[in-house]
Specification:
Blueprint lengths: L1 E6 L2 E6 L9 H15 L5 E6 L3 E3 L4 H4 L4 H19 L5 E5 L2 E3 L1 H7 L3 E5 L4 E3 L11 H10 L2 H10 L3 E2 H6 L5 E3 L4 H12 L3 H22 L3 H8 L2 H21 L1
Parallel strand pairs: 2-3, 3-5, 4-6, 5-7, 6-8, 7-10
Antiparallel strand pairs: 1-2, 8-9
Helix pairs in contact: 1-3, 3-4, 3-10, 5-9
């Protein structure tokens, strides 16, 4: 599911869960645990990366439809824990986005300090609203940290999927990178920010502290999101989307 490489004190955590890196509770827990382990010896930074046309397609909806309330609550807790692990990593983090980053996948990129995306046709978007879902309350605080209010309203209310050039113009992405240069670009960004790793760590901890405090306070409100998940509207939309995904997979097979 995941693989970690270290080169010149920069860790790269590769997402390797099928073709879409779809998120379920186990995958999220494993990512969080690996990031937390790396935090003990963080080196100069961390790159979150994957291969193929999809960086991360978000939640593994076919595997989640039909789960009970306790299992969905555990999923939300795992998602928040994963986001917190990335957001609190004591060195620079770069999401090296090689392909589509959708919903939960886009959220993971927002937990990183910088977002680099491959030039091309891949899209980035937080499209939960299209399913009738809001973001879990704790995760909204991380989005609030990373995006100006008007941009955040646009991406959350509309639930649109933006091509890389548009997401860059909106200030969501920090860099657009040519094919074959993703690793080099991520490493260069990390080095620019870590002339002094101790200074960086202190500054980041101070900047992120208020957001992390609010995230922890809001974790107890996740039941509201679970209630929404089990609403008739959302369940109907989820089943429609899963049926579409299964039809598409069958046609491709």
């Amino acid at each position: 599911m995941i693989r970690t490489e270290t080169h010149e004190e920069i860790h790269t955590l590769w997402l390797e869960k099928g073709s879409a890196n779809a998120l379920d509770t186990e995958f999220l827990r494993r990512i969080a645990a690996e990031v937390e382990d790396l935090s003990a010896e963080p080196g100069r930074g961390l790159v979150l990366a994957s291969e193929g046309p999809i960086f991360c397609a978000g939640l593994d909806l076919p595997a989640l439809v039909g789960l009970g309330r306790e299992e969905i609550a555990d999923l939300v807790d795992a998602l928040v824990s994963c986001v917190v692990s990335l957001f609190s990593f004591p060195r620079p983090t770069v999401a090296s986005i090689n392909g589509h980053a959708i919903a939960g996948g886009a959220l993971l990129t927002m937990a990183c300090d910088q977002r680099h995306m491959l030039m091309g046709n891949a899209k980035w978007g937080l499209n939960e609203a299209q399913l009738g879902l809001a973001m879990p309350p704790a995760t909204v605080e991380v989005l609030r940290y990373g995006l100006p209010r008007k941009t955040l309203e646009k991406v959350l209310y509309g639930g649109g999927l933006y091509p890389a050039f548009k997401a860059h113009d909106m200030g969501i992405l920090d860099e657009l990178v040519e094919e074959g240069s993703m690793a080099e670009a991520a490493a260069a960004s990390i080095r620019r920010w870590t002339a002094s790793v101790s200074a960086f760590a202190d500054i980041k901890a101070r900047l992120h502290a208020p957001t992390l405090e609010e995230v922890q306070r809001l974790r107890s409100t996740s039941d509201d999101w679970v209630d929404l998940w089990f609403s008739d509207e959302v369940q109907t939309r989820l089943k429609e989307v899963v049926a579409q995904l299964q039809t598409k997979s069958s046609d491709q097979g």
